[in-house]
Design goal:
The chain is built from two helices and six strands; from the N terminus they run αββββββα. The protein has one domain: Frataxin/CyaY (Metal Transport, Frataxin, Chain A), CATH 3.30.920.10. The protein is globular. The mean pLDDT is 95. Helices cover 34% and strands 32% of the residues. By secondary structure, it is of the alpha+beta class. Keywords: Iron, Metal-binding. One of its GO terms (cellular component) is cytoplasm. Belongs to the frataxin family. GO terms for molecular function: ferric iron binding. This is Iron-sulfur cluster assembly protein CyaY.
Length: 108
């Protein structure tokens, strides 16, 4: 993957996350605050815990920090996949956001 492709795919992923959170806010599903600085997206959940999604351009990875720990994802065959478990990024983010918020949340 070229650096330009990585940048496009990683920025698209961050936008998808922000758009989903905005939909939840509009539909009064859950109150999550987002703050984005470049390639770092911080999600603050109702209990004030955080999920942090961070792009890692030198490694061409996406990192997720959650209460449960840190996860690293690489793009393969059209999806972001955990380098250890093989779990897809949005599934992992959904699981961690649901655990930390106490509400079933599904990122699509």
């Amino acid at each position: 993957m070229t650096d330009a492709e990585y940048d496009r795919l990683s920025q698209e992923l961050l936008r998808r996350i922000e758009q989903q959170v905005d939909r939840w806010l509009d539909d009064d599903v859950v109150d999550i605050d987002t703050h984005r600085t470049g390639g770092l997206l911080e999600l603050t959940l109702p209990d004030r815990s955080k999920l942090i999604v961070n792009t890692q351009p030198p490694l061409q990875e996406i990192w997720l920090a959650a209460k449960a720990g840190g996860f690293h994802f690489r793009h393969a065959q059209g999806r972001w996949v955990d380098t250890r478990s093989g779990l897809e990024f949005l599934a992992c983010l959904s699981e961690q956001a649901s655990r930390q918020s106490g509400v079933t949340l599904t990122f699509v």
